Amino acid sequence: MHQIADPAAGAVIAGRYRLHSRIARGGMGTVWQAFDEVLGRWVAAKQYDVAAQHSDLPRPLALAQREGRIAGRFSLHGVVRIFDLAVHHDSPWLVMELLSGWSLATEIAGRGRLTAGRTTTIAGALLTVLEALHADGVIHRDIKPANVQLTAADDVVLLDFGIAVDRCRRPAERTAFPAGSPAFVAPEVFAGAPFSPATDLYALGVTLFCAAEGHLPFPGAAWAEPLVEARPTFRYAGALDTLIGGLLKLDPCERLTAAEAFACWLDAVAAQQQPGEGRHRSDMRDAS
C-alpha cells in the first residue's frame, strides 16, 4: 500500500479544481476548499487517503464511488450535494458543494450547549433526512455533531457518507471493528449485531443529547466496554427528554422507531409553543 502525495494549495486537480485551503482532515482523507475553473464556483474536494484505510474498507476508488453514489442520489437540503468524482495521480477525489457555516460540534464547543428550541429544530431536520435515507435502504453509520453542518441559511446538512452502506446492494454486515465513532455506536453493534436504522437513531440520540446537555450521555463508554445498564440524566433538554431518552434506549427493541421519534418531536414542538413550557430557565437567561 503506497502513500499518496500530499498536494499543496494552488495545485490543480484533474485539470479543473484548483486547491485553495484545507477545510478538515479525517480518518479517511482530507477535505479542501477548491475552485472549479470550468464552472467558476467554489467547491469542497475530498481526497481519499490510501495509507489511512482500515483493512475492512474498500480500496480508495471504490470507497469514493460508493460515497458519491449513495449521497449523490438524494436531492434534499439536508444531504450534501455531490458534483463530481475525479482521479488525479491515481488518487480519487470526490467533489461536492461547499457549505457555509460551521459544524454542530463547533457550535456545541463554542456555546457549551444549545437551547432546547435550537436543538428541536436540528432534531426535526435530521429526522427528516434519516427518514429519506432509511426509506431508500441507506444506513449512514457515522452520525455525530462533527458530521452535521449548520449553514448560514439555517439549513441542517448531514455530511460524510464515507462509511454509509446501501442495504439494497449489500447485505447486513457484522465486522470485528465496528464502523463509526465509539461514543455514537449503538450497544448492540458491540455485541455483533449489524448496523441498522435503529443504530442510526441511537447515534442521533447521542448527537441530540450532546447538543441539549453539552456532553455525552454516557461518559467513558468505549469500544472495549459496551454499555450494560445506563440511563442518561437530563438537566436542560426540557420537552425533548422523551425523544432523546427514547432514542438512547440500550435495547433496540425498546428504542423509538422513526415514526415514534417524529411523534415525540411534534410533542416537543407543541410543548415549546406553550408559555413557560418546554424551555429551561437557564435557556431563558441565555436568551436575555
Radius of gyration: 20 Å
Find the structural class using helix and strand composition.
alpha+beta
**Number of helical stretches of at least 4 residues:** 8
Residue share in helix: 25-40%
Count of DSSP E strands? 11
Shape: globular
List low-confidence stretches: 278-288
Mean pLDDT: 86
Largest sheet: 6 strands, antiparallel
Protein name: Protein kinase domain-containing protein
Domain Protein kinase: 17-269
InterPro entries: Kinase-like_dom_sf, PAK3-like, Prot_kinase_dom
Family: Belongs to the protein kinase superfamily. STE Ser/Thr protein kinase family. STE20 subfamily.
Describe the overall structure.
Helix content is 32%, strand content 19%. The chain is of the alpha+beta class and 288 residues long. The longest helix has 20 residues, at 116-135. The chain is globular, with a radius of gyration of 20 Å. 39% of the residues are buried. Mean pLDDT is 86; it is low at 278-288. Pfam families: Pkinase. Belongs to the protein kinase superfamily. STE Ser/Thr protein kinase family. STE20 subfamily.
List the topology elements.
Blueprint lengths: L11 E2 L3 E10 L2 E8 L4 E8 L11 H13 L9 E7 L2 E7 L4 E2 H8 L4 H20 L2 E2 L8 E3 L5 E3 L6 E2 L20 H4 L6 H17 L27 H7 L10 H15 L8 H7 L1
Antiparallel strand pairs: 1-2, 2-3, 3-4, 4-6, 5-6, 7-9, 8-11, 9-10
Helix pairs in contact: 3-5, 3-7, 5-6, 6-7
Sum up the structure in keywords.
single chain, 288 residues, alpha+beta, six-stranded antiparallel β-sheet, three-stranded antiparallel β-sheet, 8 helices, 32% helix, disordered C terminus
